[in-house]
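Exercise 7. Predict the structure of FOLR3 protein from Pelecanoides urinatrix.
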Amino acid sequence: AAAAAAAARDSLLNICMDAKHHKTEPGPEGQLYGQCALWKENACCTANTSLEAHEDQSYLYNFNWDHCGAMPEKCKRHFIQDTCLYECSPNLGPWIDQTDTSWRKERILHVPLCREDCEQWWEDCQDAVTCKVNWHKGWNWTTG
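Solution. The predicted structure, encoded as tokens:
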């Protein structure tokens, strides 16, 4: 029983989700940029994706961190780290959820966040603003 549980657990690690910018299998990616470099030994992202994760206006999602005014750098670093985790980590298997959109078949859902990270994110972003209630839906893309 223990061997079966270990095999099930291991099957959830070292995989890439089926999404727009992910590689099909994780592997070394020695030139990862900035905050994404944590995953350079085994990554689901490419060097170009890691670079784009740091851009204010990135082609990854056609999204601008400064969409409602300049986001403070100390705040932005948390969103960049979140993007690097999503794009690069090969260990998100336990939180992969099936979805059916035009740009991805899988997403991550309910990934735990350490209390210290959550509190620091709040501290660094509490004075930042957004003009959108929910970043995950309801965008009007007609103007680009």
